[in-house]
Specification:
By secondary structure, the protein is mostly helical. The protein is built from 3 helices and no strands. The protein has one domain. It is elongated.
């Protein structure tokens, strides 16, 4: 769900985790490339590219 863009808060609630930190700590390793995608999105936003 996280890799598909579902917000962490929604995933946390669906899985019954007590905090988003738990959700991220469990599943972050399974989402390779997300940091690069986030960096690309931030660069595009800051540089005005679309």
């Amino acid at each position: 769900m996280l890799a598909s863009g579902v917000p962490v808060k929604v995933v946390r609630e669906m899985l019954g985790h007590s905090s988003p930190t738990i959700t991220i700590s469990i599943y972050a390793h399974a989402m390779p490339g997300m940091a690069e995608e986030a960096g690309d999105a931030m660069s595009a936003r800051l540089l005005g590219a679309r």
